[in-house]
Amino acid sequence: MARPQRSAAFSVKKGRGNTGERFRGRISSGLFVRIVAYIRPHKLEEVKTALVAEGVTGMTVTDARGTGTGGERSEWFRGKEHVISLPPRIKLEVIVPDALREQVIEAIVNSARTGREGDGKVFVLPELDVIRIRTGERGESAL
């Protein structure tokens, strides 16, 4: 899949205080999306690495428990069968310019996939604006 042309449209702080271009300077339509992914806990580092490779450095990670269409499952541990009705998951949230939506979704899906039932889900929601509380910056420079 071909990537869109890159353009130096904006820059903000990246990482831990290092100045640089965020999202490699790609343009957006001015709108943002919140991408929420529920993934297996052991895939978190791989997903984070894939997101950083796409230029995403800001993310929120929360422990979660839940099940989708798979329902309950059982596992054997130390000779006993244990029913797991709400297996542990990681909820990962990122907000990115709309122009990066597909690249970020692809990075999450490809790095979180094991091919087994229960790999997780990705939800995409619109965000109208972003405001940095400390400075009052709005839009892409506030990411």
Tell me the number of helical segments per DSSP (H or I, 4 or more residues long). Answer: 2
Structural Rg: 18 Å
- The fraction of residues assigned to DSSP E strands is 25-35%
Largest sheet: 4 strands, antiparallel
* CATH C-level name: Alpha Beta
Unreliable runs, pLDDT <50, ≥5 residues?
1-28
CATH topology (fold) name: Alpha-Beta Plaits
Helix content: 10-25%
Order of helices and strands: EEEHEEEEHE
Average residue pLDDT: 81
Strand order of the largest sheet: 4-7-3-8
Can you tell me the number of structural domains? 1
Distance between the termini: 26 Å
Number of strands: 8
Q: Please state the second-level CATH architecture.
A: 2-Layer Sandwich
* Overall geometry: elongated
Give me the secondary-structure category: alpha+beta
Can you characterise this structure?
The chain is an alpha+beta fold and 143 residues long. The protein has a single domain, classed as Alpha-Beta Plaits (2-Layer Sandwich), CATH 3.30.70.120. The protein is 15% helix and 34% strand. It is built from 2 helices and 8 strands; from the N terminus they run βββαββββαβ. It has helices spanning 44-53, 101-112; strands at 12-14, 18-20, 32-39, 60-65, 73-77, 80-84, 88-97, 120-127. The strands form 3 sheets. Strands 4-7-3-8 form a 4-stranded antiparallel beta sheet, covered by helices on one side. Strands 1-2 form a two-stranded antiparallel ribbon. A hairpin with a 3-residue loop joins strand 1 (12-14) and strand 2 (18-20). Helix 1 (44-53) packs antiparallel against helix 2. The longest helix has 12 residues, at 101-112. It is elongated. The two termini are 26 Å apart. The model is unreliable at 1-28 (pLDDT under 50).
